[in-house]
Fold this protein.
Amino acid sequence: MQFANSVSPAILDALYEEALCLTEATRAVFATAQGEREPGVAKSDELSDARITLSCEALRTTTRMMHAMAWLLNFRAYFNDELTAFQLRRFGRLPEPQDVGTAEERAALSADVNAVIDGSCSFYGRLARLDEAFHRGFEAEPPALENLHTRIGRAFAAR
């Protein structure tokens, strides 16, 4: 098994534990914010606009964390020999990050909600850097088929 230099089982376990905690915090803060009037939405005249913003941010943040969890689970499968390096490279890419709301939209949300949003963005950014480093490590090595073509070309050129 070829291990990526950028991700080790120890790093993966720490990231996985952090992701679980952040995912639970995301669930808790948005469940509370959407179920009650005050915790997630600051006082404003446009309560319905704030609720829409809250719902959009909940969806964005939840999606961001689910992409992170899927990425981490793919790496766990790789380190447990359940996925090959080829499968991980092909299917294990981290999607582009979800956008966040504008400053005006975010101002309508509570500090707890904004903290979870910022935490998920920061975590996702760290995973994105690891993902980029992992895939860059494989791009530096020519694929097996390209090596074969090179060897065949050299063999015919030597004649």
In short: The first helix runs from residue 9 to 35. The radius of gyration is 22 Å.
